[in-house]
Specification:
2 copies of one chain form a homodimer. The first copy, chain A, has 208 residues and is mainly alpha-helical. Helix content of chain A is 66%, strand content 0%. The radius of gyration of chain A is 18 Å and the shape is elongated. The relative contact order of chain A is 0.12. Chain A binds a DNA duplex (30 and 30 nucleotides) through helix 3.
Amino acid sequence: MSAAEETPGVEDVPWGEVTPEAARRLLVAAVEAFAERGYHATTTRDIAGRAGMSPAALYIHYKTKEELLHRISRIGHDKALEILRAAADGDGPAAERLADAVRSFVRWHAERHTTARVVQYELDALGPEHRAEIVELRRESDATVRRIIDEGVAAGEFEVPDVSGTTVAVLSLCIDVSRWFNTQGRRTPDEVGALYADLVLRMVGAQK
Amino acid sequence: MSAAEETPGVEDVPWGEVTPEAARRLLVAAVEAFAERGYHATTTRDIAGRAGMSPAALYIHYKTKEELLHRISRIGHDKALEILRAAADGDGPAAERLADAVRSFVRWHAERHTTARVVQYELDALGPEHRAEIVELRRESDATVRRIIDEGVAAGEFEVPDVSGTTVAVLSLCIDVSRWFNTQGRRTPDEVGALYADLVLRMVGAQK
DNA sequence: AACGAGGGTGAGCAAGCGCTTAGATCCGGT
DNA sequence: ACCGGATCTAAGCGCTTGCTCACCCTCGTT
């Protein structure tokens, strides 16, 4: 178990960086709606309604429905990448850093699976420029995980025949948690994180 | 390597079971469109256009757009389950059967990733009864994989602390191949299948 | 007291949606 | 030669969509 209790600071609220307050309410409503029904099946009226506002209010804070998705996707990817980097930049052995990365990354995808579902599975609904921007962030996530595995192999901690293939598999495994994870299910985010960290260590052939 | 060569029989053509020919053309067009843009972003006019027909022609062969998705989903899930069961019902050791299952399941998800993407990720667009029917098929896929792992543990071949969690992870890993796999990418479906079979054997602690 | 800027609304526009209908065309059976 | 069913189309109906516009309300400032 790692340090998880903390004083409620400035940016601990999930969408604390989004202001003003009405814009945040709209964004939170959009995340819920997109996660439940998908971007294309969600109407701007539905989003505004969930936020307790008229349909026109949405366009005071966002130019288009697509801009809303982009904001969600951007903030979510930034957060995901930050989580991976925090673990990767530790100074323990590669096995420990990889386990940390998977554990916290998976925990985030489980705990905030509504957000993660939108962030990870609605990429294609973005316009070309916005999509390109997000794809670049994903490349950095990939590079971060790959680096840990590379270092583990170099240090003789891991035994991995195909580093880039294994990297893709590890990220895919973690991301897909947001698709099947259910808050009403048997497992807590912490439990899934622990299970997945163990599975990934096995995948890279780390000795226990 | 398992038996995979067979004489081109009645049902080897991907959508051979769909008749008449115009209905099949529409269904194939729908698979492509749904995979590219998602169910909700696809219009009936687009589907009919890809099949070289007028929008109204669709409704001669299918009652609604949702019925098209259901037909695709049903046939796809049947095929996926059949693949898993063929491997699970083998008579070798559990490790071999698990590797076979993952290899062929992954190969299908890579080779036919357009179909698989629709089948695996557009479940929520189905109506309640159709969704329930498909969910039941997924439960059977889960049970099939779990059985192999259970038997491997019982035989002392595997070392798995959490069988149901590992089952979910294995299936999730395989299914997500259809999301990221790209025909233009570096890897062939066979290569991904082999890589994933190896990774999964590691996940269950099979001695090599 | 008057102001102006920003946040909000009700009504509604143009476009596109899933789907229907009336009628044309094809074609094997008698 | 004629029929009847199956297949397909042109046109379009009723509705919803993303988004806009003219207007109103609430304030801190002067």
